[in-house]
Design a protein that fits this description.
Blueprint lengths: L2 E9 L5 H9 L17 E7 L2 E7 L9 H15 L3 E7 L6 H13 L4 E7 L6 H14 L4 E4 L8 H10 L18 H16 L8 E10 L5 E9 L4 H6 L4 H18 L3 E9 L7 H7 L9
Parallel strand pairs: 1-3, 1-4, 4-5, 5-6, 8-9
Antiparallel strand pairs: 2-3, 7-8
Helix pairs in contact: 6-8
Length: 301
C-alpha cells in the first residue's frame, strides 16, 4: 500500500526550511542564503521514503509584513500549512523560543491546522544538549505538538529519522508525481531563483529585496545546450549602477555563478544572458506576483 501527502515547513525567516527541503529532496531546488526572507513563494519538493511519496512545501518565513509583497509571502506560508497533511514548525536551537516563534504558535492555536503538527528544533550543533532538552520542554508546554525532532538540516543529523516518521504518517493513496520527479516548479522558475540567489549573496542591505528575476526565454539547442534569457527587474534606477559594478564586474560574477549552478542542476551546457530593467512599481504589478507563484490579492492590506 502506497502513501502520499503534503508536508509544510513553517517558521521564522532563516530557520533552515530551505536547507531542510534541499536535504530531503537530495537536490538544491530552494535557494539558501544567510539573509532573511529569501524564499518568496511556496516551493514543492518531492521525496520518496519506502512506499511513501512526501511532497514538501517550503514556505516563506513568517514575519511581520510591511509591504504588499511581504503580505503576499506571509499569506502563502499560512496557506501552505493549512493545505498540508503534516506541518513542521522549525525553530533555531540557539535562538530558542523567540517572540516571533511565540506569535507563530499563538496563530496556530487560534486558526488551527488540518493536519498533524510536529516541532523540529534545527541547528542543534550550536547548543548544549541540556539546553536542547529545556527548550523542547518549554515549547511543548506552549502547544501540544504531535512529535518533536532535533536535527541539523545542514549536516543531515536527525534528518533520516524525521523523514521516516513523515513517511509513516502520511495518508494512504497513490503517488501524485512520477517517481523520478523532484519538484513541480518549472525549470525556468528554478533557473530564475538560482540567479536571484546569486544576486542576494552578492548584494547588500535592502537591494536584494528590491529586485526580482524572470526567465523570459528558454531554448534547447540541437547540441543539447540551453540558451536562457533572464530579466532582472529593479525598483530604482539608482540600483542599476550598483548591480553592474565597476566595469560590469558584479553582473558578470553573478552571471557566471548562476550559469554554473544552472548547468549543475540541468546536467547540460547553459548559455545565460542577463539584462537589467527598471520598473519602479514592479511590486504593484499582478504579472510579477504570478511569475513568483504568489497571489497579488493576498498583498492587500
Amino acid at each position: 500500500m502506497t502513501h502520499s501527502g503534503f508536508v509544510a515547513l513553517i517558521g521564522e525567516p532563516n530557520a533552515g526550511k530551505s536547507t531542510l527541503l534541499n536535504k530531503m529532496v537530495g537536490a538544491k531546488i530552494s535557494i539558501v542564503t544567510h539573509k532573511v526572507q529569501t524564499t518568496r513563494t511556496r516551493i514543492r519538493g518531492v521525496s520518496i521514503e519506502d512506499q511513501s511519496q512526501i511532497i514538501f512545501v517550503d514556505t516563506p518565513g513568517l514575519f511581520k509584513p510591511r509591504r504588499r509583497l511581504d503580505r503576499a509571502m506571509v499569506a502563502a506560508a499560512w496557506s501552505g500549512a493549512a493545505d498540508s497533511d503534516i506541518t513542521l514548525l522549525l525553530v533555531e536551537a540557539h535562538r530558542g523560543l523567540t517572540e516571533g516563534v511565540e506569535k507563530i504558535i499563538s496563530s496556530i492555536s487560534e486558526t488551527g491546522l488540518n493536519g498533524k503538527l510536529a516541532l523540529v528544533i534545527n541547528k542543534i550543533d550550536k547548543v548544549d544538549v541540556n539546553d536542547l532538552l529545556s527548550l523542547s520542554k518549554e515549547i511543548n508546554e506552549s502547544h501540544p505538538f504531535t512529535e518533536t525532532f532535533m536535527i541539523s538540516a545542514e549536516k543531515g543529523k536527525g534528518v533520516d529519522d524525521l523523514k521516516r516518521w513523515l513517511g509513516s504518517n502520511l495518508p494512504e493513496g497513490p503517488w501524485l508525481y512520477p517517481d523520478d520527479q523532484i519538484s513541480d516548479m518549472p525549470l525556468r522558475m528554478i533557473a530564475a531563483e538560482i540567479t536571484r540567489e546569486k544576486l542576494t549573496l552578492r548584494l547588500h542591505q535592502e537591494l536584494p529585496y528590491q529586485l526580482t528575476v524572470e526567465t523570459e526565454k528558454w531554448e534547447e539547442k540541437p547540441d543539447k545546450s540551453v540558451r536562457i534569457e533572464q530579466t532582472i527587474y529593479l525598483s530604482r534606477s539608482g540600483h542599476k549602477g550598483i548591480l553592474l559594478g565597476k566595469k560590469g564586474e558584479t553582473i558578470k560574477a553573478v552571471s557566471m555563478a548562476s550559469r554554473l549552478s544552472i548547468e549543475e542542476f540541468l546536467g547540460s551546457k547553459v548559455h545565460l544572458f542577463l539584462r537589467l530593467k527598471v520598473r519602479e512599481k514592479w511590486m504593484e504589478e499582478t504579472e510579477r506576483y504570478s511569475e513568483m507563484g504568489l497571489d497579488f490579492r493576498d498583498g492587500n492590506a
